[in-house]
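U., I forgot to send this yesterday:
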Amino acid sequence: MQKLSTLKIENLHVAYGGAQILHGVDLEVKDGESVAVLGPNGAGKTTLLRAVTGLAPVVKGKVLYQDKDLTKLKPHRFVHEGVMHCLENRRLFPEFSVKDNLMMGAYSVKEKAKVQENLEMCLEIFPVLKERITQTVQTMSGGEQQMVSIARGLMSSPKLLLLDEPSVGLAQIIKEKIFEGIARIKKQGLTMLLVEQDTVMAMSLADRVYILEGGKIVLSGSREEIENNDYVKNIYMGVA
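Result:
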């Protein structure tokens, strides 16, 4: 049975002022898939995610979520549609505790039992947060704050999770812990679109991969196809 499309981006053009960032991007994420978008700095990866959730100006094209056109939807409405965007710079409440930050992510969930269920799930995915549940977020390391950011997103019971550079600026050992948590999320079957510069980390999770360069998709395919592509091996994985 063919999987349904959760997210479909069609001929997406995005521009800030006179500068065009995305040039006709087409991308699809099917139900239950983990899709990675890879590319160098300045390729337009973050802009792509921001365009999906109404945070970047779409000049032309469509963003379809479960076959519903959300291109002109206001950013704050996406969480109610089941789309959660974990931003690159985290945007946490620094003076709040871990638990308070997580509970802020659950504001759209009405059932108390579901909120508690989500909280327990988040603490299983990132066990260190259970130990730090009362700690003020501003006293935590960057990696721990990233875990809080992703967990806060999960508290909204999303159907589609957008992750923007979850490993940026982190040491390798911390990256591994972050991606261990994301792997646990993947095992639960949550549909994910991941933007990432660490090719090896992203490849370890992705079912399919898109390569974005200069605001255009230059290559796409299954993880195996992309891993075995000579251009990707040379440019992105450092394998001659």
